[in-house]
């Protein structure tokens, strides 16, 4: 599983990973939308991860633009609201693809919804081939179905491309016993089992995503993606965070 790129002293723990990014991460310190400095930093760090020999796929959320539960809270039909959320993920995907390309890397966006002018349709074998050819891959539009979160989409795509792990980039440096912003005595877990995370409702990912990872023995690493350089440290095994793995 260990990978080292030519000319690099860094060694990755993984051959292929699925990175789950929330849309909120793209906001940076702003209240809405996409912060240019943040997306440029992320693009550079994604390329750094790829340069240590990692085949990198990304599932991106859309919460910085629209969340399905925002629509349902105002009386919108759930399916309609979820489709709007999927379109928001496509906007984020286009922006991230553009940023990565501007920094010199090859990238493709694949969508579960057909919008052929901006993204390729999802075909599993094509996605795997892009990774094998050294392209960064962005999965947009979740699973293409309402009532499923991008957490579930990340778990599903990780299984389909046979990733070694799901990396969940958040604004917190791991999973805690309680919300560290509200509880000063909250303690961070270094490792957890899927059963512990589910029974204690620790909010690692939604229950469907967690069960899918557990059933297929897919480890999840939760880490702080807002800290510069942390993503590379995580794939090389010295970045902290919390590892959730099989019981």
Write the layout of secondary structure elements.
Blueprint: E1 16-21, H1 36-51, E2 55-60, H2 68-73, H3 78-102, E3 107-111, E4 120-121, H4 124-132, E5 136-140, H5 150-160, E6 165-170, E7 191-193, H6 194-199, H7 207-215, E8 220-224, H8 230-235, E9 242-245
Parallel strand pairs: 1-2, 1-6, 2-5, 3-4, 3-5, 6-8, 7-9
Antiparallel strand pairs: 8-9
Helix pairs in contact: 1-3, 5-7
3D structure, described in words:
There is one protein chain. The protein has one domain: 3-Layer(aba) Sandwich (Carbamate kinase). The protein is 36% helix and 17% strand. It has eight helices and nine strands. It has a nine-stranded mixed beta sheet with strand order 4-3-5-2-1-6-8-9-7, sandwiched between helices. The longest helix is centred in the middle third of the chain and has 25 residues, at 78-102. The two termini are 21 Å apart. 43% of the residues are buried. The model has no long low-confidence stretch (mean pLDDT 93).
């Amino acid at each position: 599983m260990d990978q080292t790129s030519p000319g690099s002293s860094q060694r990755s723990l993984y051959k292929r990973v699925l990175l789950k990014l929330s849309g909120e991460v793209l906001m940076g310190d702003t209240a809405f939308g996409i912060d240019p400095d943040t997306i440029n930093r992320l693009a550079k760090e994604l390329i750094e991860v790829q340069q240590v020999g990692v085949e990198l796929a990304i599932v991106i959320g859309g919460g910085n633009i629209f969340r399905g539960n925002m629509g349902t809270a105002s009386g919108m039909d759930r399916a309609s609201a979820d489709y709007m959320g999927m379109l928001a993920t496509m906007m984020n995907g286009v922006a991230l693809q553009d940023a990565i390309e501007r920094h010199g890397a090859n990238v493709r966006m694949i969508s579960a919804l057909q919008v052929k002018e901006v993204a390729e349709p999802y075909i599993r074998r094509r996605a795997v081939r892009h990774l094998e050819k050294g392209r960064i891959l962005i999965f947009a539009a979740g699973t293409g179905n309402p009532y499923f979160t991008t957490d579930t989409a990340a778990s599903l795509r990780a299984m389909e491309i046979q990733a070694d792990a799901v990396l969940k980039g958040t604004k917190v440096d791991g999973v805690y016993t309680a919300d560290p912003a509200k509880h000063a005595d909250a303690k961070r877990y270094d490792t957890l089992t899927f059963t512990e995370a589910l029974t204690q409702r620790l909010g690692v990912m939604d229950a469907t995503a967690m069960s899918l990872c557990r059933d297929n023995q897919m480890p999840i690493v939760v880490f702080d993606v807002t800290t510069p350089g942390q993503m590379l440290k995580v794939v090389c095994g010295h970045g902290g965070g919390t590892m959730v793995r099989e019981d």
